[in-house]
Amino acid sequence: MSNDSSALTVPFVDSPFLDESLAQSDLSPADKALVREYAEKGYVTIDLGLPDFDAVAAAVLKDLAPLYPKDDRRVAEAWYFDDGVKQVACAPKLLELLRKLYRREPIPFQTLNFDSGTQQPAHSDTIHFHSVPHHYMCGVWVAFEDIQPGTGELFVVPKSHRLKTFDMFDLGLPSSTGGYHDYEKSMGKILEAHGLKRTPVYPKKGQALVWHANLLHGGMPMTKKGATRHSQASHYYFDDCMYYFPMGSDPYRGKMILREVIDIRDGHFVGHKYRGQDVDLAEYKDVLTYPRPLPDWVEKPKRSGDAAESRAPERSRSPSLLHSVKKTVRGLIKPDGK
Question: Structure pTM?
Fold first, then answer.
């Protein structure tokens, strides 16, 4: 390993030299405390700081109200057409915090909007979204109303981000979406084995919960019939990485399912990089793509590191993957929009 701690390919908050780096940084005492809290617990809560948030949230709720599926109360990728969803995902105060935590440029790339609780078992986002180098990804959950007990409120598992990053291979499961529910059961057993507890969180309207890629989280049981839990989850990668879909990947056998990544801020396709070199997605058999057609304001891929539209139909893809991503794993972007 290089003697230069800045040469480590791990996020700033995961660095074994974090205390030393913070002591030498020009961050304010308040920001240093926030970084330490995030590194210690795996999450922090902040005010989103978005001007006119009440008006933005009200407009989003009105726009999305008729769009929630009856069997799964979430709308994926509403940034395609809703400016309020985009504003929340791209809130300047939030992006500035992410820069301080990771010391790389954050890339908002995916959104999920909810009108009620999910009651989803404990899981880590690293099974859905991951990067090389690892852990350059995080989730942000924004409350569109004051969150109350019994509404399927979000829970987190403090310090669980320090556990091993479990993939399907580690758990003895097939590298496919068909094993996702077994993954959730396995993660529940791991929580019990480590004596880790689920902690419900109750953000106020306009507050944002930022969590580490490997932090276990989910939804508490809904005990209040008909209760709402209006909220938005956005996910962020960071620049100069490869971005992939771990659940369907088996890197030990040379199978990596990379992901298209669009920067929600301006609609440009983000190129993949490995050790500073461009990665051409056309060289990979399977690539998880955004639903088509894309919004008019999203640019067409141009660089060799992007998934070129003209080559997309020629790339071989697994029909089972395309089907199971839609049917088995809730909230994931749909390959090819089919």
Answer: 0.90
- Could you give the CA distance from residue 168 to residue 56 in angstroms, rounded to a whole number? 39
Please report how the helices 92-102 and 29-41 are oriented relative to each other, as an axis angle in degrees rounded to 10.
70
Paired residues of 211 in beta bridges: 43, 139
Q: Report which residue type is found at 335.
A: P
CB 93 within 8 A of CB 55: no
Contact assessment for residue 141 and residue 45, using Cβ atoms and an 8 Å cutoff? no
Largest CA distance in the chain: 57
Contacts of 37 (CB under 8 A, 6+ apart): 44
| Closest C-alpha among 277, 213, 268 to residue 241 | 277
| pLDDT tens track for 242-290 | 999 999 999 989 999 999 999 999 999 999 999 999 999 999 989 999 9
Per residue in 282-332, pLDDT (tens digit) is: 999 899 999 999 999 999 865 444 444 433 333 333 333 333 333 333 344
Q: Which residues contact 281 (CB under 8 A, 6 or more apart)?
A: 258, 260, 272, 287, 305, 306, 307, 308
